[in-house]
Design goal:
By secondary structure, the chain is an alpha+beta fold. It has five helices and 20 strands. It folds into two domains: 48 residues, no CATH class; 236 residues, Jelly Rolls. Helix 2 crosses helix 3 and helix 3 packs antiparallel against helix 5.
């Protein structure tokens, strides 16, 4: 489209102001004539004629430097939240259970397992447990793992099964006639006459056996056993003949025998975390404790099982000597885990 340009040939005294780049020219105007649109080249030429050349004057112009690393406030590095103690070990055990085909490991169960492992660490129990078996996952393959070192080797104290055993969500149940599990734990590698413990969490006191042994090993009169007389009284032995703790009735749940010194007061039988009975301990050497501990029966001098049990076990351990407070803490932590697994008895 063309623009209107003033006709300078007009002689009339009318004027129109026409602005170009901020300047004004005065034209005498009576009529307009059509002129072609300016090209881009012409527009640029006119623009350059009107603009003054730029000259840098350091007295008038301040150079602003772009902000660099030295000008910026340092970005704080987030401090990573440390993993609570015991969580890594719990995750290793849970992974072994799941990889072996174990089921029922929900987020709630995983959290409860982590809490249990954390309790073992915080309460100073971890280093005192030689091996422990949480019996999670509901299968033979998942029940075999030692919770402290969940590798599938004898050296890692995984269980090896013999005879008839049943595995389900409540734990491990021997058949009472030929079923047991070998822990591969040799007591003499860890304990001495004044230092040792055994424990298990039983689902019921009911039994068809006369003297069922839940866990133990023997060498003639050197015995490390946790057992009962029928379903009436808790029996046990740490390195001497078994003892009957009076008339104290056998309870379900966590039962423990522990010894921490040569004093009678330090050889105790515990049920559900409470001391039931103390007994004068044996002081003879225990050189015969060279046969592995069995679960569900007593190891009879390396010749196989004896005094088979038919009770369901939901947690079992072999350990160093535990004080009364340590037994209480362990029993509480184990029972809390059983609550999460919906198989607690108290």
């Amino acid at each position: 489209m063309s623009k209107l340009r003033p006709n300078r040939k007009s002689g009339l005294g009318q004027y129109v102001k026409h602005g170009i780049l901020g300047k004004q020219k005065v034209y005498r105007n009576t009529e307009f004539e059509r002129v072609p649109e300016l090209t881009d080249e012409e527009k640029n030429r006119l623009l350059n004629e009107k603009l003054k050349p730029y000259t840098y004057d350091p007295r008038k112009h301040k150079v602003v430097r772009a902000a660099g690393p030295k000008d910026l406030a340092p970005t704080p590095t987030p401090t990573p939240t440390p993993t609570p103690t015991g969580y890594t070990e719990a995750d290793a055990y849970l992974t072994a259970v799941v990889d072996a085909g174990g089921t029922g490991i929900t987020p709630t169960i995983s959290a409860a397992t982590r809490t249990f492992y954390n309790s073992l660490m915080v309460d100073g129990l971890w280093d005192k447990l030689i091996s422990f078996y949480p019996f999670m996952g509901g299968t033979a393959a998942s029940h075999k793992f030692n919770g402290k070192n969940p590798v599938d080797t004898d050296a890692g104290y995984r269980l090896t099964y013999y005879g008839g055993l049943t595995h389900d969500s409540d734990g491990l149940t021997p058949n009472g006639s030929n079923g047991y599990a070998d822990t591969h734990v040799l007591p003499l590698d860890y304990i001495d006459v004044n230092n040792g413990s055994l424990g298990t969490y039983i689902q019921t006191t009911a039994t068809t056996k006369s003297y069922p042994c839940e866990i133990g090993t023997t060498y003639y009169n050197q015995q490390m056993l946790l057992r009962s007389k029928n379903n009436a009284n808790l029996l046990g032995s740490l390195y001497a003949g078994w003892n009957n703790p009076g008339t104290s009735p056998l309870l379900d749940g966590m039962i423990v025998i522990s010894r921490t010194s040569g004093d009678a007061a330090d050889t105790g039988y515990y049920q559900q975390g409470s001391l039931t009975y103390t007994n004068a301990p044996n002081t003879s050497p225990i050189t015969g404790m060279v046969y592995p501990v069995f679960i569900g029966a007593a190891n009879l001098r390396g010749a196989g099982g004896n005094d088979y049990s038919d009770r369901t076990q939901s947690f079992t351990f072999v350990g160093l000597g535990l004080t009364s407070s340590e037994v209480s803490n362990l029993s509480s932590a184990v029972n809390t885990l059983q609550v999460a697994l919906s198989r607690n008895t108290y």
